[in-house]
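Q: Start with the shorter request: fold the first protein.
A: Done. Sequence, then structure:
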Amino acid sequence: LKTVRDELHGLWEALGAPVEPEYENVDEDLSTPRVTEFEARLNAVRLEATERREAVVELVTSVQGLMQSLKVASVSTLDMQIMGALAPASEAGGSRSLVSDLRTESCVGISSEALEQVTIRQAELKVLEKQRRDELTVLGEAISKLYDRLDVSEEEQAAFAASVHGLGEDTISAGQRELTRLQGVLVAQLSDMVAERRETITQLWDEMGTSDEGRAEFRDVMEGEVSEDLLTAAEEAVAKLQAQAAALRPILRHIDRRAELTALRTSHAEQMKDPEYQALLTGRSRQARLALKELEATEKGIKKELPKITEALRRRLKAWESQAGKPFMYQGRRYLDRLEDEEAQWESARQQEKRDKVAKKKAARQPIQGSGPGLSHSLLGDEKRKRSRSRRPAGQADRENVDPSA
C-alpha cells in the first residue's frame, strides 16, 4: 500500500492535483478490498497522467514548431521550459515524450497549470502567425505585381524566393527591402513602361480596326502625364483591349483573309486584260506553264474560298451584333455595310464588263461606213471589166470603139 500511495502522491504532484485524504493512511486497513481500492485508484490516476502527457506533448510540439517558424527567441521562462520539454525522438524509441512529468527550469511538466499556460502560449503564437502570414501575403502580392510589371526573369525571382525562409521578422524585413528596391526600379523605368503599354494599345487598335471614336475612350491613358497611376490605367486598358481582341480574332482573321482575296480578285481581273499576259498563257514555255498553274490556283481561291469566307463573315457578324446589341464597327464603319457595298460594286463592275464585251462584238460584226455590199460588188465588177478589156484583140477593141452611125 505504501508503494501505491507513494506513486499516487507523485502523480498527483505532477498533475498539480491535491492529495486525496482517503489514500493517505495505509496502516489502519490492510484488507484485500482496501488494497484493491488503492490499486484501482492508482490505475485511474495513471490513465489521467498518460492522457495529460499526450496532451502536453501535442501542445509542446505545436508551440515548438510555431516558435521555430516564427523565429521567436526563447527569452521567457515558459518558452525555455517548452523548448526543453521534449526528449529527442531517438532516445524515446521513435516517439516524442516529456523529459519530466514535474516542472523544472528546462521542462514544463504535466500540471494543469502548465497545460493551461502552454495552451495560452499556443493561441498567442497562432495569432502572431496569422499576422505574419497576412503581412507577408501583402508583401508577396506587391512584389509579384512589380515582378510582372518589370518583366523580372524567372531566375531572379527564384533567387529571391530561395533567400527567405519561415515567418520570422527577418523574412518580413527581406520582403520590405525587395519591395523598396523594385519600387525604385519602377520609378526609373516608368516612362519606358508607359510608352510600351501605349504602343501595345495602338497595336491592338490597329488589329481590331478601332475607329477614332473608339480610341477617344483611352485619350487620358494615351496623353496623360506619366505616373504610376497612369501606368496602372494603361495596364488595365491593355488587359481590356486584349480581351476584346481575343474575342474578335476569329472574325478579324476572316476579315483579313477576305481582304487578301478581294485584292487578289481585283488584280486578277486587271491582269486578265493584259494582252502580254494572255499571250504568255497560250505559249508552251516553262514560264507559260508556271503562269497557267498560278492562274488556276488564283481562280480556285477566288471562286471557291472567297464566297465561303464572305458568307461565314455574314453569319459571324450578324451573330456578334445580335449578342452585343450594337453594330460591328471596323475602321470607323459598320463592316457588314462595307462588305455588302464591296460585293455590290464588284457585281456591278462585272456586269458592266459583260455589257462592254457584247457591245464590242456587235460593233465588230457591223460594216464600215461607205463599204456596204452594193459598192463592193460594183467595184469588183469594174475591176473585172478592166481586166477583160485588156485581154481582147486590138481589132475587136477598135470595132467596139467605132460609132455605128458613121
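Q: Next, the second protein, separately.
A: Sequence, then structure:
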Amino acid sequence: MAETPRVDGRIDLDKPRWLQNTYIGRAKHFFSVTDPRNVLLRGPQLDQAKVLLQQYRERKEPTGTTDEQVFAAKKMYESAFHPETQQKMFLPGRMSFQVPGNMTITGLMMTYYRTTPAVLFWQWVNQSFNAIVNYTNRSGKSDIPESLLLKSYVAASTCAVGVAVGLNKATSKLPPLVGRFVPFAAVAAANCVNIPMMRQSELIEGIDVLDENGEVIGQSKAAARSAITQVVLSRVLMATPGMALTPVIMNTLDTKTKLFKNRAWLAAPVQVGIIGFILTFATPLACALFEQNSSIAVSNVEEELKQKLLESKSTAKYLTFNKGL
C-alpha cells in the first residue's frame, strides 16, 4: 500500500500515513485511528509522543530516531489529541474508545430490550455517549454552541426512545428474533436526527468548497447536504453488521443450544463480546467508505458559485470539501 509522499525526504506529519485516494488506504488509516489498544496508553506516553512529533517538526528529534518511531508517535498523538486545538481529548470521546464504548452500550442495549424502563435507560445511555463523542470531536475553529448540542441530544434521545418503544409494542406478538432488531432501528433513526441537527448551521450557511488549486471559492449548501448524507450513511452502516448479525447469532444460541438455559446472566457478556469483535472491523471499514475530502460536480452547486468559477476562468469540473466524520 502506497504511503503519502515524503517532503524533502521526511514524513509529512500533517497527512495520514497512507494515500487516501483508495479504499484500502483509507481503511488502513482508520484502523490506526480507531485501534482500541490506544485506550490503554497512559498520560506520560501520550505526552512523550507529542514532544517527539514537535521535535521532528523542528528537525530536532533525538539522533537515531527511526521512521517507525515517528509513525508510532503519530498514531498515539492522533488517537488522543484534538487535531485543531492540540488539547488532550476526554477519553470516552476519543475515536479509539469507539469500539469498547459502543460494544458495551450496544451489547447491553440489545440484551435488555424487552421492557420499557430498560429501553428508556439504555437508549438514553447510548445517546449520552454519542453526545460526548460529538462534543469531544467538535471543530476547534467553529465551536458547536452548547444549546445546539443540547437540542440535538434531546431530539436524538426522544427519537430513539420513541422508535424503540413503538416497535417493541408493534412486534410484541411477532417471533422473538424480530424483536431483537428493535434497538438497531432505534439507533439508525437517532443517527438520522442527531447528525443533521448537530450540523444544521452547515445546511443553512453551506460549507467551504475548494477549486482545483485548493482555493476556497465559497460556501455550498449542496455540498453540505452531500457531506451530511455520507456521514449519516457511514454511521448507520457502521452499526449494521453488529446489530444485524448479533441478533441472529444470539437467537440461534438461545434456541438451538442450552448455553443460556441455566445461565441467563451469560447472555450480556456473550453479546458484548460478539459486537466488540464485529465493531473492531466495522468501525474503520465504515469510516473509510467515503474520502475525507469529498467532491461534488460543478453542475450540482449553486449558481453564484458557478458564476465565480466563470469569472476566475477556472476549468474545474469538480469541487472538493471536507465531509467531517
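Q: Describe the second briefly.
A: The CA atoms of residues 131 and 218 lie 30 Å apart. The mean pLDDT is 86.
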